[in-house]
Amino acid sequence: MEFNERVQYSPIPNRPPLASSKELRLIVWPIVVLETWDIERPMPRQIVPPPAARPVPDYMNWSWHEYEMRVAFWRLKAMLDGKGIKPSVSINSAVCTTYREVAEACRDAGWEFVAHGVTQRPAGEIADEPAMIAQCIDEIRAFTGKRPRGWASPGVSQTRDTVDHLAGAGLEYACDWVLDDQPFEIKTKHGPLIGLPYTVDLNDVPTIALARQPIQKFKQTICDAFDCLYREAESSVRIMTIVLHPYVCATPARMKYIEEAFSYMEGAGVVFWSGDTILDWYRSARQRAVIR
After folding, report:
1. Of these four, 6, 24, 125, 248, which has the most CB atoms within 10 Å of its CB?
2. Long-range pairs for 105-108: beta carbons < 8 A, 24 or more residues apart
3. Are 109 and 81 within 8 A, CB to CB?
4. What CA–CA distance (Å, rounded) separates 168 from 130?
């Protein structure tokens, strides 16, 4: 099936409302992304282009990412811990062995592990996608003791059959699409998969690393999006996803603006939830909305 056959068009004003209340109005979904980059392969992203950085081995851009694991992750985690926020961590399963201390810190803090492939390679380069998905699930389950329920594709890349493979592997939700502010259903050969809203505007890679927006602009974008969604959520709950790569957002010059943005969003009816919590809430809320 083509993707437009898998997802039914649904104008948001025509849907049964997902009941909003003083306690639950806007769900903020923070996703921290942790990846493994192979220095012997072209880097998935570049902050320094050739000729200053060489295609392989690309020490400059590899070390940009390595700063994440050595320093930036710990800085971002300290901020989230201080606010009592337990995000989802979209994680290459290889991180569990390559950067074990980082993965242990996420696990021990109670963060939800979202399967993000084995290493950071686009779906088109994977010879056996179902086997890669199964390996990722098995490695996360072995490390955390829990089977991951959600999936985020490396590089937000999929094949036409990816969602069928995900549902066939027993995954319950995926977060690769920016087409809604509420969850939606994806048809697959193995039954429905729930899509949770992803984001480009509130994702530090396309905005800061690629578009070169200043961090002050990124902070303002988060605050402006919050204002709009909080207003719209008065009648039906909305989800606001924020995607953070520590090597991008948690540098010394940027960290305070990320913290200020999170402080701005604190308030009545605002909750900071992980993907599995959103999934369970949505299934219950959708049932209640239909019954009405």
Report:
1. 248
2. 105/73, 105/74, 105/77, 106/32, 106/34, 106/77, 107/143, 107/144
3. yes
4. 9
One-character DSSP codes across 113-137: EEE--SSS--GGG-S-HHHHHHHHH
Cis peptide before 57 (omega within 30 of 0): yes
Query: Which tokens go with 14?
Result: 């025509």
Residue predicted with more confidence, 124 or 244: 244
φ, ψ of residue 282 to 5 degrees: the values are -65, -45
244, 159 contact by CB (below 8 A)? no
Q: Which CATH architecture best describes the domain 22-291?
A: Alpha-Beta Barrel (3.20)
Q: Which residues have a Cβ under 8 Å from the Cβ of 99 and sit 6 or more positions away?
A: 34, 36, 69
Q: Considering only CA atoms, which of 3, 282, 45 is closest in space to residue 155? A: 45
- pTM to 2 decimals? 0.95
Distance between CA atoms of residues 174 and 83, nearest Å: 26
Mean pLDDT confidence for 1-16: 92
